[in-house]
Every structure is written in C-alpha cells, then in structure tokens.
Amino acid sequence: MFVKLSEYITQRLENEKVIQPDNRELYRYGFQQGLILLLNFVTSVIIGVIFGKALESVLILATYIPLRSYAGGHHSD
Fold first, then answer.
1. pLDDT tier, 69 (very low <50, low <70, confident <90, very high otherwise)
2. Does residue 73 form part of some domain?
3. Residue 47 in domain
4. N or C: where does the chain have the smaller number of CB atoms within 10 Å of the terminal CB?
5. What is the spatial distance between Cα 72 and Cα 76, in angstroms, rounded to a whole number?
6. For 5-64, what is each residue's pLDDT tens digit?
7. What is the largest distance, in Å, between two alpha-carbon atoms of the chain?
8. How many whole angstroms separate alpha carbon 29 and alpha carbon 6?
9. Strand, helix or coil at 18?
10. What is the pLDDT of residue 65?
C-alpha cells in the first residue's frame, strides 16, 4: 500500500518537474518511510485516545522518536 502511494506521489512530483528523474528512488524511499512513520504515530495516538491516555501517548512519542533517531540500535557481528 505504501509502496504504491509513495510511487504515485513521486511520479506526480516528477511530472510537475519538482524533482529530477535521477533522484526518483531517493524521494520514493523517503515518502515510503515517512508514511510508515505517520501510520505508527497515528496508531499510537488512537490507542492512547481509546484508553484515555492521549496526552501520555503523545509525550512518550515525543521522547521516544528523537531518542530512537539518534541512538540507533545494537548490531551484533
């Protein structure tokens, strides 16, 4: 689903000459990752609203997302 949507967005931007054809795959990948992140964020907030903890879910995301972006992860050899 996200692959087709990101492909569509990229194609539209390329047709409007907003992006260059040689950067097409980079933009497609970026849109795909952005859509996945947006889905995760919206899902977490919806779950927070269902359980009556919307503020808490937003606060945990506000701290977790930057931490995960900078900390990375553990990679074993």
1. confident
2. no
3. yes
4. C
5. 13
6. 999 999 999 988 888 989 889 999 999 999 998 998 999 999 999 999 999 999 998 888
7. 47
8. 8
9. coil
10. 82
